Amino acid sequence: MTATSAATTTHARRRARTGGPDDGSKLLENVLGWTLVVVIAMFVTQIGLM
To answer: Phi first, then psi: what are they for 23, rounded to 5°?
Structure first.
């Protein structure tokens, strides 16, 4: 691999990132998601839609 192709490959890898946060553990995301589901279910039940 030449120096030019190595630099191009490295540059392409940097550009491929979306810039979003790095996701380590998704535990918090799952807990918040299920909490939202429960809150919506309680709201729907309280207003009598089910």
So the answer is: -90, 115
Q: Higher model confidence: residue 1 or residue 48?
A: 48
Which token pair is 49?
């839609």
Report whether pLDDT(17) > 70: no
Output the DSSP codes for 1-50: --HHHHHHHHHHHHHH---PPP----HHHHHHHHHHHHHHHHHHHHTT--
Q: Could you tell me if 50 and 44 are in contact, meaning their C-beta atoms sit under 8 angstroms apart? A: yes
Higher pLDDT, 20 or 46: 46
